[in-house]
Amino acid sequence: MKCPFCSNPESKVVDSRPSDEGASIRRRRECLVCHRRFTTYETMESLPMVVIKKDGSRQTFDKSKLLNSMLRACEKRTVPFDTLNHIADEIELTLQNEMDREIPSARIGELVMEKLKDVDEVSYVRFASVYRQFKDISTFMEELNKLLKER
After folding, report:
1. What is the pTM of this model?
2. Where does the record place the region Disordered (predicted)?
């Protein structure tokens, strides 16, 4: 880290501690030349993710949209909000770890269905019916039959 006083590129870390509720690390440094101390903050780099919609349009990934779609599917069900929030966090982390900055909306939908299936089957079917755009009752029944066979 370059010293703000003498511009020397060498310094040593004297003290480190979490800051902003663990979102960053505060470091006290000492310049190896002028021996003056200064503070730096280290944060995790967050690269934006872009969702490629079915129609080819692109928009920035928004976890709140993901959470809202799951809330709609779980309406009048006994699924706790914290569970849905945790699922949204897991999906966001999974997508970030894949290091692909452009994500097809189909990938996100599949991840949601995978998680909802384990949490609440009715919510899973509701989400799948909108996501897969069930056209009629037979398509709906096919999905229900798949679910029953997996049991």
Report:
1. 0.64
2. 1-21
